Amino acid sequence: MGVATRKIKKITEELLGDQIPKSSISAWCTKLDEELKEFRERPLEGEYPYLVVDAQVHRVRRDRKIVSESLLVAEGISETGHREVVGVAMGNGENEQTWRDFFLSLHKRGLKGVQTVVSDDHKGLVSAALMCFQGSQWQRCQFHFGRNARSHLPRRMHSEMHRRLEEIWDSTDRETTDYLISRILSDYSRQPIFCDWLENIEDCLAVFELPPGHRRRLRTTNGVERMNEEIRRRTIPVKIFPNRESALRLLTALWQDIHEECVTGRRYLNMELIEEWEEERETESETEPVEGLGESHRKFRT
Asked: I need a labelling partner for 243 at 20 to 30 A (CA). Which of 66, 76, 251, 283 fits?
C-alpha cells in the first residue's frame, strides 16, 4: 500500500502494545516477490493490436547514493477490447538499450499482433520500437506534441495554437487534417523555426488509420499517465526506496491491482470496429481508386 515500515511498527505498537521489528515486516513483504515475479513473467496469450508504453521515474538508494530509476510500463489492449498491464520492469534509464530489452522480454513472453504503438517522442523509446515492432505504426502522443509546440512560439501565440491543434486532432478525415495543417503553415510563415518543427506532426496522425471509434483513446498516452498519477500518489509516503528490489515489489503490486481492475471491468474498446473499418476501406478503394497516394503515417520498418 506504500506505507513505510516504520509507520506500521508505530501503529502495531499502539494497537497491540508490542513492537514488531522492521526486519520482520520487510521479511513478510519479501514473500510477495515470488507471486509478483509470476505476474511480471506470465505468458501472454492472444493478440494485442494496440500497445501503449510509458515510464515513471522514482528515487532509489544504491551504493549509498540516491539515484533515479525508471519504471517501464506497457499497457496492451487485447482482442476482447480489455486493457491489460502486459509489462512492468525497472530500468537504469530510458535509453534505447533499456527499452529494447523491455520490448524483447515482451516478445519472449508471447506478445504478438501489435499494429499500433502509442508513446511520447522519447528518442530511445522510438528507436527501440523501430527495431522490435517492425511493420507496426507509431502514434506520437498528441498531448505531448501540443505541449512541445509552445517552446517554438512566443507566449502570445500559445492559446491560438492550442485551439488550432485541437481542430486537427478532432478532424474526421485526413483531407481535413491536411487542409488545416496547410493553413497553419501559411498563417505562421513568419515563424520558420516553428514551421520546420511542425512537419513532425505527421507522427501524430497515425490514428487516422484506425477506426473512428478508437481514435480518441489511442491518440495520447493519457490513459497510462492517469494510472501513473495514482501510482505516484501511493508512493508519496515512501519518498525514497531503500533499494531497487523494494521499489519493484511495491510498484508491481500496485500495477497488478490496476491490471485486475481492468481485465474484470468494462470493455475499453469495441474491437469489432477494426474489421468493419477494414471492410469499409476496401469497399471505398474498389469504388474510388486514388492514384499517387503516399503513406500518411510513419511505420516501424527497416
From this structure: 76
Describe the crossing of helices 123-132 and 96-108 by its angle, rounded to 10 degrees: 40
Return the half-sphere exposure (C-beta side, CA atoms, 13 A cut-off) of residue 26. 11
Of 3-7, 20-24, 183-187, 295-299, which gets the smallest average pLDDT?
295-299
CA distance 68 to 180: 41
90 Cβ neighbours under 8 A, 6+ residues apart = 69, 70, 71, 72, 244, 247, 248, 251
Domain boundaries, the chain: 5-30, 36-143+203-287
H, E, C per residue of 60-110: EEECCEEEEEEEEEEEEECCCCCEEEEEEEEECCCCHHHHHHHHHHHHHCC
Give the Cβ contact number of residue 169 at 10 Å: 19
Give the full edge-to-edge strand order of the sheet including 137-140: 83-91, 65-77, 50-62, 116-119, 137-140
This prediction has a pTM of 0.85
Domain formed by 36-143+203-287, architecture: 2-Layer Sandwich (3.30)
* 3-state class (DSSP) for residue 120: coil
CA dist., res. 225 & res. 241, Å (int) = 21
